[in-house]
């Protein structure tokens, strides 16, 4: 059953499953317990932290294990709101994930937030970043890769600009990690991701905090994570996450260009066979796995349902928003009209996706499309 | 290797492991995805919520899935701090878990917090609860069972008093759930627990919110959990938690009185064989699995280490605080002196613990104890 909804969540990899089961057998004890079995879990937890440090090319003490990206976003925004002056301004990319926008909105007043516009390609307007920094924003929030469109943001440049301006750079790497090399991301002050987006289990993730920021505390409690996150560490989940990330970094990401070619071939084919389809963000560099496709006609929910009947799983956009009727803020920021946005399906592949499955998807899209384009612009398919 | 540190964390039960693996195979998709596979996960998530509602004897819509007890405590305290008047007072049991005290301290000013004393038995002073309610505290925070001593609190009475006074009652049931019947706990307005304390995986838990409280949001994000907790739901973790809790409720808790007799027999035996040992909270009703034992002499860390060499795992107190030198606030609240507190070991059994293992522990305690009591009160053993 070809699954093209990897950006919503991924199946657990074999390596992650094995690591989890192994840890549930021999490292399930509480890392804070005073006996040797507990201490051994503590050591393995530290080894896991060092592995994340290696992958991210940063010191292990920047790594804080979390319950996922939403938790990280909230913890970081709460911390920044407490650390920054009460009237500090914060510049936020318009196409961030709802969990990041939700976190910003939870801890900053709307008059503190400068919305950074994107080009129609989905790429952030760098002049707006520069202008915001020139006006003294204290923090800049820009994701590495967009979940709906796959559009990549120039995070290296932004990290450099922020460093020069003395502003804090927060980078949501949830959709980047495991798909593209993680090296360099640690140039951002704060980086975070979630294991279930790269083959690890749900309910676990990690963040990087600035090297000098020792006052960070996601929540107080039993002093776990050097006081940075209360709550018994989920070592089996962490072990599974590390296994998935290491495998992705050490072998999978090397195949990125092959996968990119497969995606591009699919895009050419579908535009040839369904001429009025359009790829959102076609002018930008995008993740090798993601296509936001404007269908020629018919509402996206109908396309999703028809493909679903053909055993092909795609989405209408970000999973968490897909049940809602509001048009995507990501597409709106890219000047996709509301009418067009209702025709967008999100296709997101995984490392396991084969060229044959892409072919199956192309064929199915042609099959489920109405044979002739109806006269009316919006019609049930 | 007899493990007597169940209050720190429990091994995963076979039922929980099976549920987790099953869900990772056939229900790993995102519950918010618009295809049928996602919808099926959404339905199973709702079924899991209803099962928790059955166990807790409350409406399923009171159940919010969380990442654990620390997260729940913080979410609840943040919510109460926003809902209650700015100068509202909140009464908090002195022997709460550090994560609850940390959460209270994160969201309430110290002058808002009325500390509720306990008797030397560890049982809360009900007159203090009544007095606090009489003085108009808006919320009362008392755990169901203590993690260090196993002392049970009269939560049914407190729930009744709070209901009459119109105050909110928050009850940490982390150590109660899975050990004693959960029925009735839903009389508290807010209840929470963590799966890894009752045989489920780490990183997952649940809370009950008041039936009418629709404004609760642990964190904003993608609108998951009816907007009450952003972040992709960890359905495999939730399925494993439900499996562990159902098994505990449907069969294990029926054996409580047997287990209590085994614990009592151990206490009698150890006090006979090591006459100057003392059970903390002996005058109170306690969990069938927990003993905080004041050893006749020698520091607790030495006892733990010596037992550890005999392949017996006990703790010095709550796992998260065990690496720290500060004396336990729980023991201090029970008027255990600092000198005595340094001699306390925590023994916490599980459903898997056999009478033979209890016997092994008693024998080992006698073996590792110095043969004669030294003249000095504090001496290395």
TrEMBL record, chains A, B:
Cleavable signal peptide: none
Sequence ranges assigned to domain Aminotransferase class V in this UniProt record: 3-359
Top-level taxon in the UniProt lineage: Bacteria
InterPro entries in the cross-refs: Aminotrans_V_dom (IPR000192), Cysteine_dSase (IPR016454), PyrdxlP-dep_Trfase (IPR015424), PyrdxlP-dep_Trfase_major (IPR015421), PyrdxlP-dep_Trfase_small (IPR015422)
Required co-factors: pyridoxal 5'-phosphate
Record's catalysed reaction(s): (sulfur carrier)-H + L-cysteine = (sulfur carrier)-SH + L-alanine
UniProt keyword annotations, A-Z: Aminotransferase, Iron, Iron-sulfur, Metal-binding, Pyridoxal phosphate, Transferase
SUPFAM superfamilies named in the record: PLP-dependent transferases (SSF53383)
A Pfam family recorded for this sequence: Aminotran_5
Keyword Iron: yes
Keyword Metal-binding attached: yes
GO molecular function, one term: transaminase activity
Family that this chain belongs to: Belongs to the class-V pyridoxal-phosphate-dependent aminotransferase family. NifS/IscS subfamily.
Protein name from the UniProt record: Aminotransferase class V-fold PLP-dependent enzyme
Source organism (scientific name): Synoicihabitans lomoniglobus
Upper classification of the organism: Bacteria, Pseudomonadati, Verrucomicrobiota, Opitutia, Opitutales
């Amino acid at each position: 059953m070809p699954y093209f909804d990897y950006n919503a969540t991924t199946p657990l990899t074999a390596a992650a499953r094995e690591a989890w089961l192994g840890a549930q057998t021999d490292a399930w004890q509480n890392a804070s317990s005073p006996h040797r079995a507990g201490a051994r879990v503590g050591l393995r937890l530290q080894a896991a932290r060092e592995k994340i440090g290696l992958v991210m090319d940063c010191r292990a003490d920047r790594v804080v294990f979390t319950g996922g990206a939403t938790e990280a976003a909230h913890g970081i925004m709460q911390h920044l709101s407490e650390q920054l002056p009460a009237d500090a301004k914060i510049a936020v990319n318009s196409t961030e994930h709802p969990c990041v926008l939700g976190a910003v909105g939870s801890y900053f007043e709307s008059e503190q937030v400068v919305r950074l516009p994107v080009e129609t390609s989905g790429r952030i307007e760098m002049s707006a970043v520069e202008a915001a920094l020139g006006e003294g924003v204290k923090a800049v929030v820009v994701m590495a890769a967009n979940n709906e469109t796959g559009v990549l943001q120039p995070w290296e440049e932004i990290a450099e600009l922020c460093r020069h301006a003395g502003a804090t750079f927060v980078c949501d790497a949830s959709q980047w990690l495991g798909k593209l090399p993680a090296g360099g991301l640690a140039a951002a002050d704060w980086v975070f991701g979630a294991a279930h987006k790269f083959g690890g289990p749900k309910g676990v993730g990690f963040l990087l905090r600035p090297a000098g920021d020792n006052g960070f505390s996601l929540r107080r409690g039993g002093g776990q994570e050097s006081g940075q996150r209360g709550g018994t560490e989920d070592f089996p989940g962490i072990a599974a996450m590390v296994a998935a990330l290491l495998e992705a970094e050490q072998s999978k990401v090397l195949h990125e260009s092959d996968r990119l070619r497969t995606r591009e071939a699919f895009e050419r084919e579908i535009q040839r066979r369904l001429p009025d389809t359009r790829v959102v963000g076609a002018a930008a560099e995008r993740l090798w796995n993601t296509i936001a496709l404007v269908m020629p006609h018919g509402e996206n929910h109908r396309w999703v349902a028809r493909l679903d009947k053909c055993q092909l799983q795609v989405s209408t956009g970000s999973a968490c928003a897909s049940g809602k009727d509001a048009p995507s803020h990501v597409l709106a920021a890219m000047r996709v009209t509301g009418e067009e946005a209702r025709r967008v399906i999100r296709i997101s592949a995984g490392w396991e996706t084969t060229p044959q499955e892409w072919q199956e998807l192309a064929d199915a899209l042609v099959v489920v499309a109405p044979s002739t384009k109806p006269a009316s612009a919006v019609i049930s398919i």
